[in-house]
Amino acid sequence: MSCDLPNMNFPLQLAAETVIYRIFYYINRSGNGNLTLRELKRGNLIDAMQHADEEEDINKVLRYFSYEHFYVIYCKFWELDTDHDFLIDKEILIRYGNHALTYRIVDRVFSQREDKSSEPSLGVLVCVHLSSWFKCIDLDGNGILTRNEMQFFYEEQLHRMECMAQEPVLFEDILCQIIDMIGPEDESYITLRDLKGCKLSGSVFNILFNLNKFMAFETRDPFLIRQERENPTLTDWDRFAHREYIRLSMEEDVEDASNGSAEVWDESLEAPF
């Protein structure tokens, strides 16, 4: 396989553990490792389990159980974890996405995990969602993102743009763009509630600490925009995982073909993505 799975039993165990990580990360908001009845009622786990029971193709169950999602997570982790000890440290995470993340946000990710006494392992890469990014940016932990906090993280983005000889975008302009995108109740700060009510909330974090995605957002492909409009229920992660799974599967087919163990790839069979 393209990401060199060690053996069949181990990946199945890891797949199950990844599903559990995802469930607890999204539903167990207290982070105490115990799901309450209230959390179950507020979450979508029961609906996802019913969907998994009724659906023959597990990859159509996008919440938690998709094998495609697990495969992409595993391969991305395996590519980063070059010594294959199943631990991700700061220096390794910095390399993610061709050094997409800033040093400041990586430091915050690990400081948040240290506060919870968690090992820096697969969980770092698996599920860092909206509320987690919010906590990373919220330096004083008061539940709001201020101008100074956002500027602190954007400063490194600005420096990276200058180093890459790209035209820098001043923070004042970025702040206006963020306010327009989010439309917060109070324009002097942003709350988690403001972000949850906006479909572009993920783009705010990309602007602040992911240069690759920030530049991609600034030069968005009209084809991808049309896809988003046609499938509004899909998340950015759903689209990314689907693209990556197709790419990884094609690489595996090419590898098998080169070894004489599979038929040559037929372009007519490629998914229209």
UniProtKB/TrEMBL annotation:
Which SUPFAM superfamilies does the UniProt entry name for this protein?
EF-hand
Q: Where is the EF-hand domain?
A: 134-160
| Keywords associated with the record | Calcium, Metal-binding
Highest taxon of source: Eukaryota
Instruction: State the GO CC annotations.
Output: protein phosphatase type 2A complex
Pfam families according to UniProt: EF-hand_13, EF-hand_7
Q: Name one GO molecular function term.
A: calcium ion binding
Gene3D superfamilies (alphabetical)? 1.10.238.220, EF-hand
The reply to whether Calcium figures as a keyword in the UniProt entry is yes
Q: What InterPro entries has UniProt attached to this entry?
A: EF-hand-dom_pair, EF-hand_13, EF_Hand_1_Ca_BS, EF_hand_dom
Tell me the leader sequence span. Answer: none
Q: What is this protein called?
A: Serine/threonine protein phosphatase 2A regulatory subunit B''beta isoform X2
